[in-house]
Specification:
CATH superfamily of the largest domain: Ribonuclease H-like superfamily/Ribonuclease H
Oligomer: single chain
Number of strands: 7
Number of domains: 2
Strand content: 5-15%
Shape: globular
CATH class of the largest domain: Alpha Beta
Structural class: alpha/beta
Strand order of the largest sheet: 4-3-2-5-6
Distance between the termini: 40 Å
Order of helices and strands: HHHHHEEEEHEHEHHHE
Helix content: 40-55%
């Protein structure tokens, strides 16, 4: 994708991917070693205190001995793809062209696998640099249905993971995501429409709406990512593949009564209720 010699123009490729044309041509410099360490600490603090914005994070970081300004922390939060999770007043308007869908899971009894799926993206630190992890999760069983590693926060890997999950497991009734540009893009929404999947989006900054995926990120990071220092993308892929296989097949889950996600996905025990 984004090949300048492709018969589809660069402008159209950018539109299909849901990104600006300027990002195709931009050559972003890699972050410094100091910024990588800072990003890793910000990511850990976000898991511990997801309500913390840039101002509060500066205070936490200064307690750890980091001398950093609020603007720089805000810039790194954007690069990480994280925002403070709290209910905001509904005074802002979505970006023109974005398709924002209502949250469909409030008071919904999720009764079976493939009833509701969720998708999200998180930051994965490596020894030098970082990548992003995209996951498709079955809400009922907590099973990771498909995943991708990506060098950027773009739409392409999200669509690839979605199509992979659909090919392996068939379509769900509802897909739930946040309001990130990847999930409001034309390419992603078109893939859902083609599979006749209803779209549900979290309220902006509403932590209750993202609780299942946030728990998954916490588990993966504390049990796998933070224990490693991946030397390459291929090493990160291999290690995460082993862990996610264990997560699905061998790791008991307290929310599932001690069962593994694969057991619940295929055996269908009693229903659970989405967060209010």
């Amino acid at each position: 994708m984004r090949a300048r010699t492709h018969r589809v123009s660069v402008s159209r490729q950018a539109r299909l991917l849901g990104i600006s044309r300027g990002r195709v041509y931009s050559q972003r410099l890699p972050p410094s070693t100091a910024d990588l360490a800072l990003m890793r600490r910000i990511d850990a603090l976000h898991l511990e205190s997801p309500f913390a914005g840039s101002r509060m994070l500066v205070g936490f970081l200064r307690q750890d001995g980091y001398v950093v300004g609020r603007r720089h922390v805000a810039t790194l939060m954007t690069r990480l793809g994280i925002v403070a999770l709290y209910r905001r007043p509904t005074t802002s308007c979505p970006t023109p062209g974005q398709q924002i869908h209502p949250y469909l899971l409030r008071q919904l009894m999720i009764t079976r696998p493939n009833h509701v799926w969720a998708m999200d993206i998180t930051y994965v630190p490596m020894a030098r640099g970082f990548v992003y992890l995209v996951v498709v999760l079955d809400w009922f069983s907590r099973k990771v249905l498909a995943w991708r590693l990506s060098m950027t926060l773009e739409t392409g890997p999200c669509v690839e993971a979605l199509r992979d999950a659909l090919a392996r497991h068939g379509p769900p009734e509802i897909m739930n995501t946040d309001q990130g540009s990847q999930f409001t893009s034309v390419a992603f929404l078109t893939a859902l429409q083609e599979a006749q999947i209803a779209m549900s989006m979290d309220g902006k900054g509403a932590w209750r709406d993202t609780v299942v995926v946030e728990r998954l990120w916490r588990t993966i990071k504390y049990e796998e990512i933070y224990l490693r220092a991946y030397r390459s993308v291929s090493e990160a892929w291999s290690s995460l593949a082993c862990y996610l296989t264990f997560y699905n097949r061998g790791r008991p889950h307290s929310a599932l009564g001690g069962h593994m996600p694969d057991q619940v996905y295929f055996n269908q025990p009693q229903p659970i209720q989405a967060a209010a």
